[in-house]
Structure formats: C-alpha cells, structure tokens
Amino acid sequence: MTMLVALPILLPLLAAGLSLVLGRFATLQRLLGVVVFTANAVLAVVLLAEADKSGPVVLQLGGWDAPVGITLVADRLSALLMLISMVVMLAVLVYSIGQRITDYGRSTSSTAFHPMYLVLGAGVSMAYLTGDLFNLFVAFEIMLGASYVLITRRTTATRVRAGMTYTIVSLTSSLLFITMIALVYAATGTVNLADLSGKVEALPVGVQSAMALMMIVVFGIKSAMVPLHFWLPDSYPTAPAPVTAVFAGLLTKVGVYALIRTQTLVFDHGESWTLLLWFSVITMIIGALGAIAQNDLNRLLSFLLVSHIGYMLFGLALYDVTGLAGAILYVVHHITVQATLFLVSGLLTRHTGTVALRGMGGLAKLYPAIALLFAIPALNLAGIPPFSGFVAKLALLEAGAEVGTTMAYVATGAAVLTSFLTLYAMAKVWVFAFWGKSKPPHPDPDPTDELIIGTGSTSRTMVSATSALVVFGVLIAVFAGPLSEISTRAATDLLDGGPYRTAVLGEEAE
Amino acid sequence: MLLLVTAHLVLAALLPTVSRWLGRWAFAVGAILPAVSLGWALTSLTEVLAGGTVDESVAWAPVLGLTFTLRLDILSLLMIFLVSGVGVLILCYCVYYFKPDAQSNSRTSALLVAFAGAMLGLVLADDLFTLYIFWELTTVCSFLLVGQDGNTKQQRRSSIQALLVTVLGGLSMLLGFVLLGEQAGTYRISEIVASPPAAGALTSTALVLILLGAFTKSAQVPFHTWLPGAMVAPTPVSAYLHAASMVKAGVYLVARLSPAFSDHTPWWPLIATLGIWTMLIGGYRALFERDLKTLLAYGTVSQLGFLMVLMGAGSHTVAMAGATMLIAHGLFKSTLFLVVGIIDHQAGTRNIDELSGIRRRFPVLTVIGAIGALSMAGIPPLFGFLGKEAAFEGFLESGTTGDLVVLVGLVLGSALTAAYSFRFLWGAFGTKPGVEDSSAPKPSLGLMVPAAVPAALTLLLGVVASLFNALATTYAEPYPAGDHPYYLALWHGFSLPLLLSAVVVASGVGLHLARDRVVRLGGWLPDFLQAQPGYERTVAGLDTVSYAVTGRFQAGSLPTYLAIILLTFVLVPGSAVLTGGSMPEELRLWDSAVQVPVAILVLTAAIAVTMAKRRMTAVILTGVVGYGIGAFFVLDGGPDLALAQFLVETLTLVAFVFVLRRLPSRFTQVESTRSPRWPKVAVSVAAGALVAVSALVFSGARQAPPEASEGFVEAAPEGAHANNVVNAILVDFRAFDTVGEISVLAVAATGVASLILATRRARRPSAAEETEGPRKSREVRK
Amino acid sequence: MSEGPPRSQPSGEKKRRTSLWEEWDTPQEHWLLVGSHRDGRERSLLLEVAARIIFPTVLVLSLYLLFAGHNRSGGGFSGGLVAGQAFVVRYLAGGPMEVRAAVGLRPPVIIGAGLSLAVLTGLAPIFWGEAPLTSAYVSMTLPVLGDVHVVSSLFLDMGVYLLIVGVVCDLLRTLGAGIEEQSPRPRRRPSG
C-alpha cells in the first residue's frame, strides 16, 4: 500500500520519457497520456480511502528514514486535492486531443505537448505528496518548467512576450524559494516538513515569523495573491484554452496547498492571522474589480481566478477548523470550476474567432449547448445555490462569523461583496456574448496560431470532455455532505499536526 | 414535500423536449405539478387550521448546517395558494397567449415550471439556507424570463437590473442568516422564531441585513425601480413573477420572522418607514403612467409597501389584515394583469391613449377587470375591502402615536391606490374622445377563463366574508389577541374604519378626476434622490472604479512586477528579520584569506553586468560570476560541486553564444525611453542585502547541529556503498530530487526546441487558405 | 556578430573619454564567426583535426567520470556534461551535419531513453518489495575483471548521463543549427 504513494509521480515521469521516445507515434502518445492520468486518478481514490480510514500513508523513499531521506505523505488533504487535479488533467487532456485531431488530423504528432503535459502531471502530484521542503521545490520546478514550455508553445511573436513575463516572474519566485530553503536549512538543519515543525519551535520568535512570512511571499507569488499577482492576467490568457484551463485550475492551487501545508504543519499561529486576512481581502476585491473592467473573456476569467484565491486565503487566515475546512472545500470547487470555464471559453472562441466580448453576440441561440455549459459553471463560480460554489462560500462565511473578530467580519463582508462582483462580471459576459444580436464570426486570422482559432468547429470529444467536467462539478455539489466531512477531518488533522508527525517520524515524535 | 419540489425541477428540465412534440400544450403539461401542489395544500387545509404542521427533513451537508428542512404551516399554505394556484392559471393562460410555434415557448414553459418549484420550496422552507437556496433560484429564473433572448437593449438592461438588485439583497440576506444562525445556535426557522436570540448589536445587524434582502426582493424604495423595468417580460410572466409570487417573497420573509423579531429595535421602524414611503411613491408614480402594465407595476410596488407594513407590525388584527391583503392582492393583481394581457393580445396596444371602446366590445372582460380594479381600490363587497377595513381597524386599536402616524400614511396610500385603480378602469375600458373605438377580435375562452377565476374568487371571498376568517385567524395566532378578537366582515357598524374607507374612495375619485392637474405636478423630485438614476449611477461608478483600479495597477511592465515582488519580499519578511532577528555572536569575516579576492571578483563582475552595453559582455561577466562561485566551492572543499558548476557554466556560455550570434551586439533600449534606473538598483540592492543579512541571522539562530548532514556522512559508506558523499546524496539519499531535476532538463531542451523550430509546425486547413494561397510564403518567415 | 571592422581610435581628448565609456567592452578582434560551414564556406583545418583527436578522448573521460562518481569526484552529471562538451567541439568544427552524423538517434529520443531508464531504476525496487529508489548492492567475481561491485544507483547515473548528452545534442540541434536555418544567411565576403 505504501508503495502506491510514489506511483502517481513516477508513472507520469516514465510515461513522459516514453512519450519522448515515441515522438513520431501520435496515437501511442495519446493513449499513454490518457492511461496514466486515469491510473493516477484511481490511485488518488485509493490513497484517499486509505488515508481517511487509517491516517496518513507514508513512504520513505530509498528506505531511508526522515530526515535523511525523502518522505512522501498522502494524507486526506493531499489525496483529495490530487484526485481533483488528476480528474481535471484527464478531462483537459481529452479536450486537447480532440482539438488537435479536429485541427490537424489524426496522425499529426507533437513532440512537445504530451511529454510536457505528463511532466506537469508528475510535478503536480509530487507537490501534493511530498513531505520534504526541497522536494517541494523540485516539484515546483518540474511544474513550472513544463508550464513554461506549454505556455510558449505554438504562440505568436507578440504573445511569446507575455509567456516570457510568466517565465521570468516564475523564475524569480523559484529563486526566492530556494533562497528561503537555504535559510531554513541554515537555521534548523533539516528540510523535512514533519521534522521542521519540531525544530522551528525552538527558534527565536523573530526568526520564526520571518520564516513564515518568507513562505507566504514565495507561495503567494505562485498562488497569485495580491500584490504578487500581476503576472497572471497578463500571461494566462495568452495560452491556448486547454493549457490555460490546466494552469488556472491547478498551478495556483498548488501554491495555495503549499501555503496551507507549511503554515499549519511547520508553524502554529494559534489564532486568526490579521496580516493574511488583509491580503485575502485585497486579493478578493482587486481581482473582482479587475474582472469587471475587462473586454477580453480570458482576461476576465483570469482576474476572477485571482479574486477567488482570496477566498482560500481567507479560510486559511481564520486558522480554525471551520475556516480551514472551508478553504479546502473552496480549493476543490475552484479547481474544477475554473478549469471548466476556460474550456468553455475555448469552445466559444473557436466559434467566434475572437476573445473580445464586444465582438461576440447571440451565442445562446446559436449554440444552446455551449450556453448551458457556460451557465452552470458561471453560476457556480458566482456562488449561486445549489452549486458547489455556494456550499464552499457558505462554509467560509460561517467560519468567519464563528471567529467573530472585527477583522474576520470585515473579511466576511468582503467575501460577500466579491460574490456580488463575480456575478456582475458573469452577467456581463452573458449579456455581451450570449444575448443580443449575433455577430458574424471572425475568420481564422492566423492558421498557425493556437490561441485564436476561428475555424468554427468543435468536435464531439471536446464538448464531451467539457460536459464531463461540468457534470463533475455538479457532483461535487451533490456530494457536498461527504466532502465537507472529509474536509473537516482534514482540517482537524492539519491544525493538530500530531498524526502527521507521528506517521513520518515514528512514535518518538511528540 | 421535497419530492414535490424536485418533481417541479425535473419536469422543467424535461419540458423543452416535451414542447418539441406538443408545442404550446407543454404549458398545460407544466401546469400539472402546480395543480398537484394546490390539491395537496387543500387536503392539508383542515390539519393546518387545527394548528398542526407537516415537517420533512433531508440532510445535504449537515456539517455546514445545510439541511433541506420543509414545513407546511398556515403561512406556507396561504403562499401556496398564490404560488401554485395562480401558477396553474398562468400556465393555462400561456397555452393561448403565446404564439403556438414560437421558439421561446420551450424555454418559457421550462422556466415557469422551474420557478413554480423554486417558489414552492421557498415558502415551505423551514431552514434559513434552504430558503436562501430557493430564493436565489427564483432570481435566476426571473433573470432568464425577463431577458428572454436579450434581443432588445431594454430587455438586457431590465434583466440585469433585476438581477443585480435582488442578488445584492440576497447576498446581504445570506450574511444576515449566517449571523442570525450563529447567534441563535440553530438554522431552523421554526426554532429561531420559537426562541429568538437576545437583542444585541449582532442580532440587530443580522436583522438589518435580512431586511435588506426582503426589501430588494419586494421592490421597496429605494430598490423598487427594477420592478417596473421588469415589465418588458411577457404579460403572463409579469403576472406570475412580478405580481403574484416572487415579489411576495420578501413580504413572506418578514411575515415569517415577525412573530419573533417585531419588537427588536431595527425591525418595526425600518419596515414602517420604508413600507409607507413605498406605498406613497408607488401610488404616486402609478398616476402618471400611460402604459397599463407599468401602471399596474407601480401599483404592485405600492401594494407591496402596504403588505410589508401589515406583515411586520406584530399585532393580531394587523396580522389578519396582512393575511387577507396577501391573498386579495394576489387575486386582483393576477386578474388585472391577465386582463391587460388579453387587451394587449387582442388590440395590440397597452397604451391608455390608444385604447377606447373596449367596454362596449368586450363586456365580460370589462366586468372581470372591474372586479379586479375595484377590489384593488377597496370597494365593498370585494375582498380587498375586507383587508383594508381590517388594516385600518388594526392601527386604530392601540391608539399609540406611532400607529396613528402609520394609519395616516396608510390612508393616504389607499387614496392613491383608489385613484390609480380608477385610472386603470378609465384607461382600459373608458371611451376616449378622439380615439377610434377598438375593433379587436374576441379573445378565446382559454384566455378569459384564467382571468375570470381570480375575479370570481375575489367576489366570493368578499361577499361570504367568513370563508377566509378561519385562515386569517389561524395566521394571526402567534400574536396576542385581546378580549375581542377581530373577525372579517363586510359590516362592522358605523365605525371609524368605515369612515376612513369612505374618505379613501372619495379622495380617490377626486384625484382621478383632477388627473390633469396631478399629471402636471409630477416629476419634480430632484435628480439625485430619484432611484433609477441612482441605480444607473451606482453601476456606472462601479465600472469606473474597476477601470481605474485595474488600469493603475495592471501596468503590463515586467520590471514593475518584479520590483513589486522584490519590494514585498523586502518589506514583509524583511521587517520581521530586522525587528526580530539578531546577529550571531561569533562572526568571522572569512575562513581563508583566498576567499577575499574571489569575493571581490564576483561582486565586481556582478556590478559590471548591470553596466554592460553589449550583450556578449553581460554574458561573459555572468559566466565570471558563475566561475567565481565555483572557485568558492573549491575553497570550501566541494570538488564535485565545483566540477558541476564549471561544466554547467561552460555549457550555458556556449548556449548563449549560439543565440547571441543572431542578436544585435548592443542592448537595444534607447536611453531616453528607459525609466530611471535608481529605483531598480535600490530595490535589487535591498533584496540582496536582506538575503545576506537573513543568511547571517538564520545561521546564527540554529540550535542544534544539522541532523540530515550528519546522517548522510554516517550512512554513505555502508548504506549507499559510496565514498563520495555528494554523489551518494544525488543518486541515493535524495535520488528522487535528481529524477525530478533531470525531468526539468528534459523539459528545458524540449522547450527550446519548441520555440525555435516553431516555423516548421503544422498548419490548420482553415477555410481562408483556399482563397488566399500565396499568403503561406509570408507566414513562414515569422 | 555582423559588425564592421573595429573602430579607429578617436583623435580628440573628449571623444576618447566618451568612446571609452561606451566602448569599453568592444572586442578588438572578431571571433566565433558564423558562416564558416562545411557547405562551401570557410573550414578551419586546425579545429577539425583537433576535434577528431579530442572527441573520443573526451568521451572516454566522460565515461570514467560516470563510473568513478560513486567513490571519487564525478558522477552522472559531470560525465554527461563532459560528453556534451565533446559534441560541442565537434559541432564547432563541422556544423550541424556533424552532430547528426555523430549521434544516430534524434535527441528527444535520447532524452526520453535517459529519463525512462532513470525512472525505471527507481521503480524497480518495488518488485522486490522495497521502497522505490532503494539501492541494491551486488558484489560478484567476474573471470577477467576480478571483483566487481555494482550499486544499482549506477543505472540511475547512467540515465542521467544519457539524458544530459541528449539535452546537449538537442541544444546543438536547435540553438545551433535551428537558428541558422531560420534566419537569412548574411552574404559575407571571405575575411582576409
């Protein structure tokens, strides 16, 4: 059973290597990708069941005990987030395959896409499963490296510049991350997360808070917390739809996960954290305001992504069981919904040939199926019941009211206001794109460009992949009961690091 | 009960398919479930009148307090009469109202049935969140029904306005619910009402937030302007949503919570003030309208104010009046809307100025319309009169000044109501000089019957006053009754309420006859106080703020972004390091003297990089920095590290040179366009200095020797079978990291290939190419 | 670099100072000229002969580094990088066709093979019931070579070696040859 923990990482890496070797055989590459991600999703389910039943599943790699070797840990939080991520990656992969077959025919292979996608999947799994800070850095490197390639692939000269913005900002964040690791190691002599939690307590308070704040900044860049978010709206919209869907759904949430994991396991803040609450408030509001100001559909969705990261930070900052459980629920909900919205946006822009909202119109009558596929996740994101957005948002509001400090109430109010602003932004999209007179589609401006594709054709594969994700999102709402219970259990575990530490370090850990 | 609600939603999902076969009869199919609900409600009538309730509970996410709890009591029952009863009528009416082959029929029927289900769930909800869920569902249905296809600007604007205003209220209501539940310790409405939480700042805030939701939904001033705007929807939709059911949701909520909270500080003053004001404004505006539907819309606004006051008052007689007016309003408003729909359908216009002679052409219709309008005006022996009498009696009872002020407001409002009722009658059925008499075709029976049924009920319930008495009394039970509880009757003797009613009718007639003078007086309210421009300015302001904030911050410049990131890094953790950290006690400047020249070399090269004018120089200097670091490794005793560092540095130099061959030799930024460098220098120096200081502080803070390093040295020879500890770490202890990092290398190579070999990529067979073949050659060069 | 002959020294005092500041890093001679390809352009005899001698030697050195890494300085990274440098020298001497001739497989295939080998080495211990990436130690006596000790992490190192060789060859293929093919070749007169 413990062996299974390494598989979600090693299998995609192996498949990536094989995919590179099989660069000329498109069908084999596609098959490999689909099989591996399905296997990963199944593994995640198994790990989640096991972790929920008997506590964290721990694997010491190489047979070395912590802190000499690297530890992989699958607890409730990791397994749950990995499950959602793998499902989303699978759906986006199918969408992407469908898009490529539609555009270029069945036999065209791509040397870059499938290996990079698999490496990205390996990186995401590694980030969720690792129990070691340096390994987390390596996971980020893997994810980011693959994302650099995916975002600059098949792009135009003007848009590669935005890809470079993303690359350079991410490289800076990696630089700060490794600096931070070096400082942590200098102060404590270990990079194992469970071990750190014991050793950090012995440090002077100033050093502890400096360390915690450094982690906030580093992971804040990755999770697009304001004021570290500027790179996201400039770069995400420039990638093709499936790539943006995966980035938006997964990469930022890995940053949020890293924040949650480090701030709960390594540090113990005691009560709600005012500084982080402030950050969450400005993230929520500025992101939502940014979305309202946009005419580009993908930029609008990117700003909403930034805004809703604020919700998760809000849950974390409350630092109690209900708050953390709400944050976890929100992560689960948001991964799915944001990826779905970007996929739908991809479907739309294929028909309209433009991403400008004012260039679209009347799509509800022309493509009612896509309109429905948009409406459900849009309402979901805006927190309209009975979808998962409402459930997660409610959990956060209840947590905020429970904590009861003035700052918590301010943040709760900001959360409600952001919900309203999100609805306004979604309503704008609906009114401009789906209502009104239909505008003639813009012709395919550049046949080599992967972002604006005005060919007017969407294959059944693409639509089914998107619909499957929409249904998955609805299922999250239907199973809100079990999900909220698992989240609460996960949150309790997080705040009380005992089970994790004992599982990793053995019984002598206190 | 939950089954019934769900069945509505399932049927709604199926209706589009059904309507493809049955056409407009899909509406009739849709009417089945509301009819079933109505029947079920009627069968439960006796039980509820005896004081019993029907409860049901289904857990969804109990950890979060999300449980579907439904409960049938007298208030729900009354509302079901409106929701399902009127629903059946409306759906049958739709069969004949809409064009048989209209494309929108499938959508309209589905949305109407979904809406009926959502309203049913709303009025049955016994849990705060259940109520909220159905509340927002009705908002969504309303948005889609008002907007239809969104073809006209008016449709889009009105639907957005309705959406924004009601959602704003809905969200504040949700927050209020959360706070209230937190205070009360439970989310079940019946339990909260039975033992309400103590008065306090939090409870009052919660109540104000909840009232905000109620006010937006029920179109109270200043949120009322969405209702007249929503009249762009087809008439049956307006009749159902915006007259009979959805707008009553706010009133319903107030009625639901009043038994517990009517004596809390913010409750009654807020409701009374806004309610009376709404009644007056709505009535006043209705006097100017030329479109019959908008006239009725303002009338609805006014009546909703009236209902708010009645439901929120918290006394026995007034509660009875509230129950009566609730049903009465539902009945006469649906009648009137349906009549207007018939007129519009047959004559093609709703404008007062264009209608004439309807009275002679459609006598039956006139009678129906007259019953409705007179009930609205409060003329005996119609049902509306009973309610009004009860209302006046209720506020006369206590004799307090507050109540008397309210009474004056009600009387004024009722006078306006009477006036616009007469205006309606005159406008719809009167004979206008100079206008041609209508020659519209006769309306079908299918249209007339649904309009006639509520009218008949209005007459019946008015004449046989005691029919409704039991219901009203049961509803008013939570309030203390006093010795002589009120009962509904047409004749109570020569009492003050009767006098007031007479005054009301007389003033109404007077106002209507003097209509020309009144019309001229209108429109004097200064612009900034008017609600509709207020809404528009708020929305425009929101857009402006968004543009301003985003434009200011999202600069699009990479150096700015990096500067902000580094600045945050310096300020946030930096302040913690500087305030909380302390330097280590033993600080050596260097370990061996050779380190000094190497350090000077590295620093000089680093500074020189920023001053380099040619790309090649910058690359070489960066290489010098790298080799210098390698030299440090050698001096510190890490030959493997130094070896790897030198090799990698050489390789990257080679890679750079390959690329630099093709670029201009100098950095190409023109001096004049470059922003001043000193901020960038300052930020980077600050960041670098912070890292250096942190390195000192953190290494000085170490408490114990590094466990991991010792473990490596210890385990390498026997465990990893290696004498080279570094290699053992790389391929054994931390082999996982190595596997990860080589993947990154593979990724890097692939990425470079993908960027550079881009022009050889495949092209989509887009339609444009067939006509523009020669463009290909130009594309390749990119 | 396509720039003209070096600038002559300016005459006046003031001109020299500004020129020094502007040109302090201008090289005084040309180096690494592009355009000296095998296909009809300049060839450097010295470079080609030297490359022929150096190439196999450097490769042997890289293999030594690979095998010796576990107990002395070296390892997969260093070995792979040194092998890569050998290919760089060959490319400098002979151009893109040289690289293609030296390595028969497409570089992505080599990269993929290296990565797969490394990961398979990591996965293999599972079949023996151990945690992934556990190293095994095999000690045997071979007829000619005598006592041979093999640690399974050597295979991981070999995967790393292969991958780095593949990466360097890929960089040569793209950065080196790809950029050249893409841009229009400058018509240069042979430099004297």
UniProtKB/TrEMBL annotation, chain A:
Name of the molecule in the record: Multisubunit sodium/proton antiporter, MrpD subunit (TC 2.A.63.1)
Stretches that traverse the bilayer: 31-49, 80-98, 110-128, 134-151, 163-187, 207-232, 239-260, 272-293, 300-319, 325-348, 369-387, 407-427, 462-483
Residue span, NADH:quinone oxidoreductase/Mrp antiporter transmembrane domain: 131-418
Membrane protein topology class: Multi-pass membrane protein
Organism of derivation: Actinoalloteichus caeruleus DSM 43889
Keywords: Cell membrane, Membrane, Transmembrane, Transmembrane helix
A Pfam family assignment: Proton_antipo_M
Record localization: Cell membrane; Membrane
Family statement drawn from the similarity comment of this UniProt entry: Belongs to the CPA3 antiporters (TC 2.A.63) subunit D family.
UniProtKB/TrEMBL annotation, chain B:
Predominant location: membrane
Source taxon at top rank: Bacteria
Matching InterPro entries: CPA3_Na-H_Antiporter_A (IPR050616), MrpA_C/MbhD (IPR025383), MrpA_C/MbhE (IPR046806), ND/Mrp_TM (IPR001750), Proton_antipo_N (IPR001516)
Domain NADH-Ubiquinone oxidoreductase (complex I) chain 5 N-terminal span(s) in chain numbering: 65-103
Domain NADH:quinone oxidoreductase/Mrp antiporter transmembrane: 125-402
MrpA C-terminal/MbhD domain boundaries: 600-664
Signal peptide range in chain numbering: none
Keywords: Antiport, Cell membrane, Ion transport, Membrane, Transmembrane, Transmembrane helix, Transport
Extent of Basic and acidic residues compositional bias: 772-782
Subcellular location: Cell membrane; Membrane
Membrane-crossing segments per the record: 74-96, 108-125, 131-148, 160-180, 192-216, 267-288, 295-313, 319-343, 364-384, 404-426, 447-468, 488-511, 561-581, 593-611, 618-635, 641-660, 681-701, 742-759
Membrane topology note: Multi-pass membrane protein
Chain ranges of the MrpA C-terminal/MbhE domain: 680-763
Region named Disordered: 763-782
Protein name: Multicomponent Na+:H+ antiporter subunit A
Organism encoding this protein: Actinoalloteichus caeruleus DSM 43889
Automatic annotation (TrEMBL), chain C:
Subcellular localization(s) per the UniProt record: Cell membrane
Keyword Nucleotide-binding appears in the UniProt entry: no
InterPro entries in alphabetical order: CPA3_antiporter_subunitB, MnhB
Location of the Na+/H+ antiporter MnhB subunit-related protein domain: 47-169
Keywords tagged on the record: Cell membrane, Membrane, Transmembrane, Transmembrane helix
Keyword Cell membrane found: yes
Main location class: membrane
Membrane topology: Multi-pass membrane protein
Transmembrane segments: 45-67, 73-93, 105-128, 148-172
Region span, Disordered: 1-20
Top-level division of the source organism's lineage: Bacteria
Family that this chain belongs to: Belongs to the CPA3 antiporters (TC 2.A.63) subunit B family.
PANTHER family: NA(+)/H(+) ANTIPORTER SUBUNIT B (PTHR33932), NA(+)_H(+) ANTIPORTER SUBUNIT B (PTHR33932:SF4)
Protein name, entry field: Multicomponent Na+:H+ antiporter subunit B
Lineage summary: Bacteria, Bacillati, Actinomycetota, Actinomycetes, Pseudonocardiales
